[in-house]
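Re: weekly structure request thread

Next one in the queue (340 aa):
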Amino acid sequence: MQWPQYVQIKEVGPRDGLQNEREWISTEDKIKWINMLSESGVKEIEYSAFVHPKWVPALKDAREVGKQIKRNPDVTYSALVPNEKGLEYALEAGIDMASVFMSASETHNKKNINKSIDETYPVLHKVISSAKQEGKRVTGYISTVFDCPFEGKIKIDDVLRVCDRLFELGVDDLSLGDTIGTAVPSQVEALLEEVLYRFPNKDIIMHFHDTRGMAIANIVTSMNYGIRRFDSSIGGLGGCPYAPGAAGNVATNDLLYLLHGLGISTGIDENKIQEAAFFIQDKLNKELPSRSLAYEIGQKKKSLQSVQAKTKVEPIPQRKREIIYYFIKHQYEKLRSKAQ
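Done, posted below.
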């Protein structure tokens, strides 16, 4: 099997990863964390979402974060933008690329955006046009392209219809999302057969959640169809507020282990990604679901236990303590008598 020479990963942990977390991560820690990711070799970071704080309180400091992160010129910094007001704030805070979003499922779209699919297009059209006028590229996210938590299986024709419209509105690329993480490789094959036939010259990104543990298998399937760009979240952080039970995105740590193991270049330093994963895990005060991260933690614990075993000081038995005590006391009394 011929694997690609290079795969590009977009790190979505600071946005898609944190949006569903109840534990508040301070603005200072978000900035430090994103700065760590900026030095890892990742080429694109989705650092926040400019949505109303009422809907995503975990990201209410998007403007402050955007203004204070240390920008690496080799990194593209994007953010989720729901409407023109959100775009205004995003441009003020500094974005290189805007991400707009909607669902292929009518019910999920209403739950997530509070609008029907047809009502969403005019809103996104304004955002896309305004972003283009500012010289910004635009990614279009399509959620629930395989399954919906409310409607079940989604028809491929429904997905294609949304893809058509978003490309007509001017998005530069599309990210197709397995929002609830239930797709299997056969579904990925069926969708990509149609999408790539319909849009042979368009840039398609795949966005897999790992609820059923199928994300890595689905990525391998996607690469077999020529897909070279994937979204992932450090440590496997994430979930969807409007998809009950959905797990986080495929873990960046696990994806890197796969790609590098296959000899595929990403330009990303795995050690730096692990450090950033440990950092956010500590701040969230919980173990992240990444398998490779769990392995690293296990190895560190094993190494620590080994060192402790080698350096362990055996307790002195009671009889020996008494002998030492009386010896020291005798020596002390001898020195004291001589001094007198």
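Strands lie at 8-11, 44-49, 76-80, 97-103, 137-143, 147-148, 152-153, 173-178, 203-208, 229-232. The CA atoms of residues 78 and 97 lie 5 Å apart.
Next request, please.
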